[in-house]
Amino acid sequence: MVTPRLADVAAALDQAYPPAGAQSWDRAGLITGDLSQPVPLVHFAVDPALAVIAEAVDAGAGLLVTHHPLLLRGVHSVAATTAKGAAVTGLITGGVALYCAHTSADSATPGVNTALAAALGLDPARAEPLAISEGSPLGLVGDLPESLPLADLAYRLASVLPVTGGGIRVSGDPAARVRRIALLGGAGDSLFDEVRASGADVYVTADLRHHPALEAREEARGGRPYLIDAGHFATESLWLARAAEDLRATLAGRGFQIGTYVSELVTDPWNFTVGACVPT
Known about the structure:
The chain has 280 residues and is α/β, with parallel strands linked by helices. It contains ten helices and eleven strands. Helix 7 (192-198) links the parallel strand 8 (177-187) and strand 9. The protein is globular and about 60 Å long.
């Protein structure tokens, strides 16, 4: 077994999460790095945050793989006086390449949404796309083996997600039994029409804004589909461990050996919540 070059690792990631499967507005793939540099260790995280980059540098990683892009929107400067510039500078001076698998990992199988589906108790192989956008699937919808109370589903999710300051928000009768689940890791309030069309009992996603969520609940007249907002960072974090495992296996099959590490840093921007309701 030999240590792969960045070109070898990037090729394996491109195969698992084809950049062509990303949405047109996205910026997926290799962001920084020299294709000839060795990659003995790959660091995985949701966000290319400054603390994550420092962690990867300190660990001696040759590559940082994140879900979210660093340069999603155009910038005119990468001077270290800005956060984006400091991130780019930290990566380059630390010798760490950056690869982002955003909507390319959302649409992949296995990927972000199949990991969330499995955590909820769904069989990802029996789930169907919630929607199709630009030829790629968005989200999943499927049925649990048996129904359970809405509150129990929320607590099941809480038991497997990282703890964040925002917690999990739920809209609906805690005792209502649910079985058919629609889900989308990350921000999902653009797909309420598709959720209603799917016949889902509950929609599990994140970043639900006041007006779209209220309108969805009004359309449901207080009934189905209920809503679970489990947090953007949290719903997308479950994919990382499987991504690391799959990358090791793929490269081993090609004669390469790498180490992997999944960051445990919580990069959700919220620290704590005060005055939240609890189910009764």
